[in-house]
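Quick one: Choline transporter-like protein from Drosophila mojavensis, structure tokens please.
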Amino acid sequence: MTENVELVNKYGEPLRYDRNFQGPRQRDRSCTDVPCLILFVLFLGGWAFIAHYAIQNGDLNKLMVPTDMYNQKCGIDSSVLNKKYLFFFNLDQCIDPLVPITGCNTPQVCVETCPSQTFVWDSMKNTMSLQELRARLICKTDADKAAIGSKADIERAIQENRCARYYIKSQPFLNRCMFEFSDQICELLPSVLLRARRDSTLRLPGNSSQVEELEMQAMALTMQSEALARVAPQTGSSKQEPVDERVGQCRRQQLNGAVIREKMMQTDTRLAKMVGNLVAHFYNGTHDAQRLGEEIVEDLVNSTSVVLMALFCTLLASLIYIALMRWIAAPMLWFSIIGVLVGLLFAIYYSFKQYRFWSNTATVPLHDLNLHKQWQNLLQNPKMWLYLSIAACIAFVVIFLLVIVLRKRIRISIALVKEGSKAVSTVISTVFFPIFSWVLFIGTIGFAIGVGLYLGSIGTFSFRMVRRLTDTGEVTNEQCVCEGPGVNYTVGAACDPEIFKQYCHINLRRESCAQTTCSFLEIDNPPLIRWAMGYNVFGYLWLTFFISAFSDMVLAATFARWYWTFKKRDVPYFTLTRAFCQTACYHLGTLAFGSLVLAICRMIRLVLEYIDAKLKKYDNVVTRAILCCMRCFFWLLESFLRFLNKNAYIMCAIHGKNFCTSAKDAFNLLMRNFLRVVTLDKVTDFLFFLSKVLLTAGAGVSTYYFLANNPSVIQLNHKAVPTTVVVIAAFLISSVFFGVYSMAVDTLFLCFLEDCERNDGTPDKPYFMSKQLMQILGKKNKLPPRQRRGK
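--- reply ---
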């Protein structure tokens, strides 16, 4: 039978003591913040309705319309109404991860149809007539093609990059002309790559013109990608498969394995090209960058097993490290603090030494404006070293005094870190729970982006009459006159491309306007669609904060249940599952409330950023200052709300109260222990950071050492490639582990504070904290008389 007694803590606040209190139990719980949960469900229903409406009425093809090098929308702008496909002079230039930022550095023009035949000027110029060549030629503008009257004009236009030198038979993909690789071209591909004569006995189906056509396709393919010539770069092994063996099975054998293998090799080649283009932005020489890109991709492919094994070892090391933290937390933390203090002493000594040296050394400042010279001037400035030594002295004194004053609280923090290690080790399934949140996050992001794209495609195209710019950036002065329905069309005003093309001309011969066009401006979304876009953005914010809050409360309920179990070996099985069910059954309304507050704050910040972007062109000092203050205020407010919400979820998981009550209780509890809160937060952050660095560095060093000392197992061009991948992935893995660990420490800290206020160590009110914490605080549990007599 449970005995409830009205008590007050040492601060005079009422406590209803329950001697059987064990934290987040489902007994006597009820649903919290139900109205907010209903609002959240209705909001999600409205979001689903908007998504359905957007999919039914939107058209993503409107957003996928390609744009040529003259900023004309293919098939939409007046000058290219009948040209809906985009043709690339050199498609390989677009295989670059920086294309979304820098653009595709090759001429792009709108065409009526994608090329149905292969064209290679160097091979065809002596075998085809001028008319045939001119028919196959693709140029930047119709004027460039119309000006061609001889083969010499074609050669000149190609040299000036006004016409394409070669292209391959293509098929439209999203209204963009992409290469079409036939079965026969795969047969020819190996010999072209080896740059050898074809065997005279080779016979392909069809007539000689087809054979010639296929050979031209293969030659064009070779010119398109130099990377394919090194599809199997040498790695020093004597057991290299011939290129003809590795590539020539593209279609030759009708076996699934051969086809899949060839597709994988083509993927590796294209990936090598992409990496090579990326490296070219930071590496001297296009050829060297391409080769380096191929070597990087080859190392990634060859070291897959090593990387996976290293990451698996990192995962095990993280688990073992968390288990060991109960013993090594104190040595690590004190060693780190001493290391920081010693480092500051060395900085003080070195800075003062440099200050004395440069004060007694006469130097002439370097007058170059480049960054390196300015950095050298800064290093030779004695005042800089003086200020640096003063700052290091202040930092040393402050940290040293804080360590002395807060040494007891640092010991409490270390003990709580050890307790967190025990909790995570006991309920090891909590380490893998973030995977569930990741899946939900990815689904939410994909849904919000999809709905946003469909909403953005709802509306009508708006057009504006504009004049083109010359290569030097000057505006053309073509006298384009419109009549009939377009008589009121003026430059900069709205227009219709059909009317513009039919009724606008530049002379009495009614020649079409060439330098003046009716160009696409934007998709004019109706006002309701714009509100729906804002609804979609707010829905994304609310749902993502809700998912994060759900994960926090489930983990908090799990670790709180561990703390409030007097004998830790009696922690029930499936604690995480029970916490999940408890949160889902009782506290979704509280999560909706807390996430709504954060979503509103974040939405206000986004609106302020939008207003700031719009007001930049006015360059008003007053508005900039006001916006800066408001942005700073709401950033601080959001940071505070995130901290408060996290602790409110912990209190709700423990006591089952609504959001406002839990937030008030958590805030009061933390403010009564302000110094402990600050100490714990900084100490644990520092300790966890050191732990992540240690695990990441260990994974990277171990991987590099293994690759360097076992060349017979795997041969690589650059050992740094797989090592870098391991370091990045290891840091992510350790961050996930220590994110759960941090939640455990925060939960146990609140439980510890409440344990100190709720209990006094008597048999009726024993402490639930560990013996180490009781020893640090000078407390202990008094044994009941029976147990004393039994002893």
